Amino acid sequence: MKRLKFPHWSTLAVILIAAVLFLAAFYTHRERGAVPTAGEITNWGLSFQKEGEPPVANATGEYLSQFDSVYCMPSEGKTIYITFDAGFENGNTEAILEALKKHGVKATFFLVGNYLETEPELVQRMVSEGHTVGNHTYSHPDMSAIGDKESFRQELQRNEEAYKKITGEDMPKLYRPPQGKFCESNLKMAKELGYRTVFWSLAYVDWYENDQPTHQQAFDKLIPRVHPGAVVLLHSTSRTNGEILDELLTKWEELGYRFGDLWKDLQ
Questions:
Q1: Which one, out of 83, 192, 231, 267, has a CA that is 20 to 30 A from the CA of 27?
Q2: Which of 85, 206, 227, 261 is catalytic?
């Protein structure tokens, strides 16, 4: 009689661990009423091929345009767009706002619910000075793991309500996925809710509060990689960004760049 062959114990262990992780993720989402997405989860990524030119992304502009999404703006001249992500306030925003005002830049601040609830005066100042406040979700979850429209909508709607309470106005329909995690169903749901999903074409590692880049490290990443139509992602929690922004904007201006208003130019 032919003897049956069973998988090696290490293979079984891997299978069991994978099953446990899957079930844990499933029930976590089910408990909060969200259905896990069945779509492919993608981490936003860029590859810089040539100095002064837009990077190659892991989703093309043509693909993203189907869902009213962008990562790099069309630009006949040397126009770039400044955006900030913020989950909390740690004292750098005032310097950032002063630098933006000095250079006449209208930036976009993608804020989470915590920021809207704890810093209403700064949010109002952003709006009063002509900046756009976009939606970075209420609780900053991995949105690519949410597969039902109602749970997706709630993450955006709670911010809309907080914004209207502060400003008395409707929140601009710009959405940036936390950590750049997305899948096609997310893009579709955002579009159905009237949002434009905004990724980025220029960024650097500036978000570790206790491991900030030096000024020179920041310039080494942000100056040679700038390109026409760039959507620049910075974090307003970065001490380095608060310190260098005035000089950084000056350097870009010296290279012939001007600064566009993202929300206005997407209309």
A1: 192
A2: 85
d(CA 156, CA 187): 13
When pLDDT is cut at 50, 70 and 90, the band that residue 153 belongs to is: very high
136 is catalytic: no
Radius of gyration in angstroms for the set of CA atoms belonging to the chain, rounded to a whole number: 21
Query: Among residues 131, 206, 235, 261, which one is catalytic?
Result: 235
Of the candidates 69, 96, 99, the residue with the CA atom closest to the CA atom of residue 84: 96
pLDDT of residue 39: 52
Q: What is the mean pLDDT of the chain?
A: 89
**36-60, pLDDT tens digit by residue?**
444 576 899 999 999 999 999 999 9
Active site annotation includes 227 = no
pLDDT in tens, 160-174: 999 999 999 999 999
Domains of the chain: 37-265 (3.20.20.370)
